[in-house]
Design brief:
eight-stranded mixed β-sheet, 38% helix, Aspartate Aminotransferase, domain 1, 12 helices, globular, 16 strands
Length: 369
């Protein structure tokens, strides 16, 4: 049997036909950029995430850049970010003219801790901080970090590219965020058919500024109050996302089942499976296990031999990336992010995996020696 790492084409019955029918309507009415479907999706997204304001944009990287600018981050401002994240978090800070400072994550939770953020604030005196909710979980210290940043006057942006549908203390993770962003890249749990992103906030001022920045900084049709982006969400992507959102909880439930089965049924001591904190409800984006860096290459070859897809999310710390040279302002590191990058292994996990596929992965991994 061949099991891919991810399969984004397992749609619900009639999903393809419904999307195609509504796409045809867009072609006929000429609603290519903006239009009613974008507003419909943004309204549905706002309701689903329980946020005050939700808006679409062109991609997840733009979402972070717009959020930074809308929240008041300017040229040469210092921004602390976790050393374990996707490169977009780092480059978004650089692209708005600010200076990234990386902070190491915990070996146990794989996320930032309150004490690490506190140390970074005291050492670097940043204008802003970004916490990243990886693996379909939430940073366990989210509530404490939010309070810390508020008390210290540090703008907090939350990168939720992997965290749509995650709950923190039985509430939507995004509902209490000052500013949060997400990616609707096709491989995400709520994926578009191309690139798209989202911005969420409880601040009307941030929302108004972000909406202008997304559309060339427009304050009226031919008046531009800001240097912005052309980062509007297209009607086709809004249409696809709107239909996908209707099925999202079913997709997340199927992914959660896979992750839980791996954690409970795989007994191979070579892998240590990591679970989200007890007050976090995952969305099933990724199954996460750790191995010793020395043992991982052989296990990867074993998976390849048995036609099982895998991931190593993510394979490099931000402070160690070649592109960071000349841009990084400083770092706090105990080597954890680098160790995690060399140790993490992700088994196949996607919506509507069959039980036969899950059982094959479990038995194959259990038979690894």
């Amino acid at each position: 049997m061949k099991v891919p790492f991810i399969d984004i084409l397992r749609y619900e019955k009639n999903f393809y036909e419904t999307v195609s029918e509504k796409t045809s309507a867009l072609l006929k009415n000429g609603h290519f950029v903006g239009g009613p479907i974008v507003g419909e999706f943004e309204s549905a997204l706002k309701n689903y995430t329980q946020t005050e304001f939700a808006m679409g944009c062109a991609n997840g990287t733009d979402a972070i850049q717009v959020a930074l600018r809308a929240a008041g981050v300017q040229k040469d401002d210092k921004v602390i970010i976790p050393d374990m994240t996707f490169w977009a978090t780092f480059e978004a800070v650089v692209n708005v003219g600010a200076i990234p400072y990386t902070v190491d994550v915990s070996k146990e939770t794989l996320h930032l801790t309150t004490s690490a953020v506190k140390e970074a604030i005291e050492k670097f005196n940043p204008k802003a901080a970004i916490i990243v909710h990886l693996y379909g979980w939430a940073c366990p210290d989210t509530a404490e970090i939010r309070k810390l940043c508020q008390d210290k006057g540090v703008v907090l942006i939350e990168d939720c590219a992997q965290a749509i549908g995650v709950k923190l203390n039985n509430e939507s993770l995004l509902s209490h965020a000052f500013v949060a962003t997400t990616s609707f890249y096709p491989a995400k749990v709520l994926g578009a058919s191309g690139d798209a992103g989202g911005i969420f906030t409880k601040s009307s001022q941030v929302a108004q500024t972000a909406q202008k920045l997304i559309n060339h900084g427009r304050t009226s049709h031919y008046e531009h109050g800001f240097i912005g982006w052309n980062s509007r969400l297209g009607a086709y992507e809004a249409n696809f996302l709107n239909e996908s959102l209707k099925h999202l909880e079913a997709r997340l439930d199927s992914r959660r089942v896979v992750c839980e089965q791996y954690r409970t049924k795989i007994k191979n001591p070579a892998l240590k499976f990591i679970a989200p904190a007890s007050h976090v409800k995952e969305n099933g984006y990724l199954s996460v296990a750790l191995m010793t860096p020395e043992s991982r290459p052989a296990f990867i070859e074993y998976l390849k031999k048995h036609d099982i897809g895998y991931g190593t999310v993510y394979p490099g710390a931000m402070s160690e990336q070649p592109g960071a040279t000349g841009h990084i302002g400083g770092k706090i590191s105990q080597g954890n992010a680098d160790w995690i990058a060399k140790s993490v292994i992700n088994l196949p996990c996607f919506a509507y995996m069959t039980q036969e596929e899950v059982d094959f992965v479990i038995s194959t991994v259990n038979n690894y020696k």
